[in-house]
Structure formats: structure tokens, C-alpha cells
Amino acid sequence: MRYYFHSFPTVAEKCRNDTSCPYKDSFNAKACWGYETECKEENSFSVPHCPGDHKGWVATKKAQLDTFYAQGDFGYVRDQRREMIVMCEPLFADDSSLECSEHMRFCRARNVLLNFTDLLYRKEPIRYKMDVLKEGQIGGYCTLNEKKLREHADHISPLQSWGPELRNFRRFHRRPIVQGDCDIVIEKPTYIMKIDAIVNMYHHFCDFFNLYASLHVNLSHPTAFSTDNHIMIWESYSYRSAFQDTFEAFTSNPLWDLKTFRGETVCFRNLVFPLLPRMIFGLYYNTPLIYGCEKSGLFKAFGDHVLHRLKIPLLERKNEKIRVTLLSRDTQYRKILNEEELVRALKENKQYEVRKVVYNKKVSFKKQLQITRNTDIFIGIHGAGLTHLLFLPDWAAVFEIYNCEDPSCYKDLARLRGIKYFTWEDNSKLIQQDPGTHPDGGAHAKFTNYHFEVKEFLRIVSLASTHVKHHNAFKDFLSSNMLQKTKKKDGRILVETSTEENASKVQHKRDTRSKDEL
């Protein structure tokens, strides 16, 4: 809460004067996220950490720190905020507006109209389409800078920018809401999302992570972190995903899609076009990460936000054993052929508490997160399930038992999150079942299965265990755990990990129109 109160001091003052406000211990006027103009490094949520060599990327250590902060931390948010350009300028409060960061990576609009009438006549399903809107089917009453609009509509690709949609923005000759040109007026803030592959955790969390980062880019109102908003998915397929519970961290309302308003003209009071999952030099998926740096505050804040909003508990420990979770795959490829042998060998070490899991549709995503959050060493072969490392505790280690010749993917994600990463070091101590055959032809390391030497496997797990045991956060957690045992209230600890939740409790409820309740 202290970071939230720093951004909105009037809300902090309201809480200070309210005897029932539960956040009295959160008044630290200096605490800041890091992207605010007046934020000093010593007061920011996180400080870049670059203990390794930059390998010639830059000339100095400071340049290395600055580069990492801009590439994969709150510096990216800072730069998006600095880049904001007014594309369509209002004169009065009832006028429309449109502003975007460079290349239309992030945009927001007020009092604009979207015309979905043509969707009535489209027979094919819509996904990754760049022709949902035609010229003039999005616009508003404001002074449009057509030159800037054209210049920044330069990344024309479905998931790289909002150029495919906003290049069609036009100036109207009257105010659409005031003049009654809308079939529906949406009063609550609305986020439109163009999403990646919903069946793959790694790719779908590109969507969720960029949505979270966009909350910070858009941080201009006390309700910025409120879940009383709407999210529209920019496709006509009904959204279903094994990871759909994650949306609860962002909205308390049902999701919309392009079928919701088919055949209607819809006006939005506040419309946000968030950062997208496959931006050029973007966050998470296409991040050109400098060598030698780790521990992005933005990635940690995202994990904390999701865990807190989904109410995933950090459970009380009954002992000081290292909790080891081995992620098994029920797919055709990348199976660990001697998996049971490895699990038995782990269980022989009485310092470990070992669990083998399969994260599939039979295990709810919230249950998966609870297992992950209460894991000290997370083991799995290369695959989307390793994205769970985002939700490991700070002291944890991830052991990608084999990277299948894709060495950077989860290694980079682990260092962004600040989690210690291990992988197989000696390929002479593993056996590949066969060369592997890619669906498009040719040998491929991801399309086969593997057998691992037990002794070498245990050696690397031991290194991970040593890391966990010596981590100060783990020591502090065990000490706190012992203290909780003496107090013994309800048998478990629910750790407060988010600064934004419940901010709306110190806000007055806003009036809404009945048309908004759809």
C-alpha cells in the first residue's frame, strides 16, 4: 500500500483521517515504484542487480544497470510513460481523446466510439485479424494529428502494436456520447486485449504480465488497480483456458469478446489498449536481455500481485525440510524416462520433502499455484510448465533438468524473476531416446524423450538445496515460521504480498449507468 499511497497522496490523507482505515502502517511518503519522476533509487520498489559481466554490451557498470532496468524492469514502464504522444487532442471535458506511446505499443482513449455493426456479416471466426475495424469505425470528437497517427502505425502485425486498429481512427464532427450516437455507453474503464496462445502457460502469461505492466503505465487515477473494470478479448472465440483464473487478479466482471457487441455501436468513457505479448523489443517474450543482470522488480511485483489477488497461501512449515517438486509431463515428448528412479533417489534424502506433480486440467490452476508457491526447488524438463517459476518464493531454485537446446528461454525468465537457475551440465550423462523429429521434418531435441544419470541429477539438486538453505529470505521465513508456531492461530500463514489490493476500500464507489451492466 505504501507505493500506492505515494502515487495518490490524497487517498493516503483520507485513510489517515479515517479511524477505520486498516492501512495506518503504510504511510511511507518516500516509497515509490521507480518510474515516477521524483522517485529516488533508494526509495524505489527494487534496485537493478548486475553481479555478472555484461560481455561487451556496454562500456560501464552503470550503463549495464541502466540497460537492464530499461529492458526488463520498471524502467520499461517509465519509458512508455515518457513516450506518450497525444494523437487526438480534446478541448473540453466531454471531448474525445487518444494518446499512445511510440509505435502504438500502449494507448488510451476517452469518450470514443467503436462501430461493430459489420461483425454481423462476418462468418469466419476472428482471431489474429487486422481488419476488425475499417476506416472511421473508431473515432471521436477531438483534433486529430493525422501525421503522427500514420508515423506511429508502423508496427503492423496482430500482436505487436495497436496500429492495425488505430490507423482507422478518425475525427468525428460531433461528440458521440453527448449526441446519442451510441447504442451502448460503457462507463467503467475497459481494457481491450489481443491475446497469445491460451493453451500454453508461457505464451498466455505474456498476456497477463503485459496487462499488469500496463496498469502501471496507465497509473493516473486512484482506481487504476481496481478490479471493477471490463476486459474485452479481441476475438470472436469464446474464451476458455486452463489459466483463466488469472483474470481474477485484474477484473471482478465477466470477460467480453467481439461477440458481445456484434452489430452495435459502443462508446467507451475510458478505453485502454495495453502492451501486447509480441512487441518488438517487448517485455517477457522478445526481451533483448543484457548479460549479467537479474531480479526485476516488475516481474516480482507481477508474481506478488497474482498470488495476492488469487489468495494463494504460503503454508506453515511442519519441519525444516527442503520442499522439492518434480513436474512430470503427460505429453508425448520431453518425458523423463527414468522419472520414478529419480524420485525414489530424492526421497532417500531425509532432508527433502519430495512431491511429483502433473499440472494438467485435472488440477485447478489455483491449486497448481499453491503447490508452486510452497516449493523450494522446482524441477522440470524444458516446457511451458516451467513458467511457474514466476510464482516461486524468493529463496527458491528452479532446475530445468534439460533445456532441449533452447538455453536462454527459462534461464532468462528465472533471472528476470530473481530465482536461482540450474540446468544439466554434462550431456554425456544423459541418454536421448532418438534424434527427435520435428513436425515440419528434421531432427529436433524437443521432440524426443530423455534418461538422466541419477548421481549427476542428485548432485545438481544438492547444489540447489545449498542455495536455498543459505538464502537469507529462507532463513527469515523459517524463523518467522517458528514464531507463528508459538502463537498458533489458524494453522497457516497468508502472507501479504501486494501493495495494490483493497485500495478501493478507501475510495468512494463511483456512479455507473445501467447500460454498463451487461
Q: Report the portion of residues in β strands.
A: 15-25%
Structural class: alpha/beta
The main sheet comes to: 11 strands, mixed
Domains, number: 2
The low-confidence runs, each spanning 5 or more residues with pLDDT under 50, are 491-518
Mean pLDDT across residues? 92
The count of β-strands is 18
Number of helices: 13
Shape assignment: globular
Oligomeric state, counting identical vs distinct chains:
single chain
Q: What's the Cα radius of gyration?
A: 25 Å
N-to-C span: 32 Å
Kindly state the percentage of residues in helix. Answer: 25-40%
Catalytic activity: L-seryl-[protein] + UDP-N-acetyl-alpha-D-glucosamine = 3-O-(N-acetyl-beta-D-glucosaminyl)-L-seryl-[protein] + UDP + H(+); L-threonyl-[protein] + UDP-N-acetyl-alpha-D-glucosamine = 3-O-(N-acetyl-beta-D-glucosaminyl)-L-threonyl-[protein] + UDP + H(+)
GO molecular function, one term: protein O-acetylglucosaminyltransferase activity
Keywords: Endoplasmic reticulum, Glycoprotein, Glycosyltransferase, Signal, Transferase
InterPro entries: Glyco_transf_61_cat (IPR049625), Glycosyltransferase_61 (IPR007657)
Summary, kept brief:
With 518 residues, the protein is of the alpha/beta class. It contains 13 helices and 18 strands. The chain has 2 domains: 223 residues, no CATH class; 159 residues, Rossmann fold.
